[in-house]
Amino acid sequence: MHADIDRKLFTEEAIVEGIDRVAKEVTACYQGKDFTVISVLKGSCIFASDLIRRIPIPLELGFCATSSYRSGTTSGQLEVNFLPEENEVVGRNLLLVDDILDTGKTMYALKQEFLKRGAAEVRSCVFLDKPSRRALEFEADFRVFEVEDLFVVGYGLDFAGRYRNLPYVGSLKPEIYRETIAGA
Ligand code: IMP
Ligand code: MG
């Protein structure tokens, strides 16, 4: 285990099992219906690529990007800084895929943005859900795991841009983010 990790929360094996389960739910939901998976960069790139390879029905893939976290662990101002082309959104059934649903601000804002831009339908799928932190009413249509209120990294999730490449999910030692914030 990486020296900066306090506790391993989800192993590679548990992640594979969880994604298999959710991939089946997504497949059942979109059977016979065109849809586009929109991966929210950068955090969901690993989850989205594992998820779509377990969905055996036709789908398209798009990306969008927001930034709400600077280098700290609390939510800042949300900016949508990258969106798919208009023809990839208008009239389409979209499945937004993100790494974690925390306050809910990112997914809520993205859903409104895509509906405003003419999407026929917007659903959401998150790898992790931290319901204790929700700041507004938003629930994901699909989620792999619920997590307690800890700052977690790995499997796409970062702290100050690092740890995305860990193959498991773990909580970060508090002294790591305290040091980084103090030195920022
Ligand atoms: P929300 O808008 O507060 O729901 O935040 C969603 C975004 O915050 C996610 O896409 C993550 O980038 C980031 N985030 C929230 N909690 C964590 C965490 O525990 N570890 C890493 N990133 C997190
Ligand atoms: Mg993110």
Topology:
Layout: E1 5-10, H1 12-30, E2 36-41, H2 45-52, E3 60-67, E4 79-82, E5 93-101, H3 105-116, E6 121-129, E7 142-146, E8 152-153, E9 169-172, H4 174-183
Parallel strand pairs: 2-3, 2-5, 5-6, 6-7
Antiparallel strand pairs: 1-9, 3-4, 8-9
Helix pairs in contact: 1-2
The structure holds inosinic acid and magnesium ion (MG).
Entry summary:
It is built from four helices and nine strands; from the N terminus they run βαβαβββαββββα. The chain has helices at residues 12-30, 45-52, 105-116, 174-183; strands at residues 5-10, 36-41, 60-67, 79-82, 93-101, 121-129, 142-146, 152-153, 169-172. The strands form two sheets. The chain has a six-stranded mixed beta sheet, sandwiched between helices. Strands 1-9-8 form a three-stranded antiparallel beta sheet.
Description:
With about 180 residues, the chain is α/β, with parallel strands linked by helices. The protein has a single domain (about 1-184), classed as Rossmann fold (3-Layer(aba) Sandwich). It contains 4 helices and 9 strands, in the order E-H-E-H-E-E-E-H-E-E-E-E-H. It has a 6-stranded mixed beta sheet, with helices on both faces. The mean pLDDT is about 95. It binds inosinic acid and magnesium ion. Inosinic acid (IMP) binds near residues 43, 75 and 103. Inosinic acid (IMP) binds near residues 106 and 152.
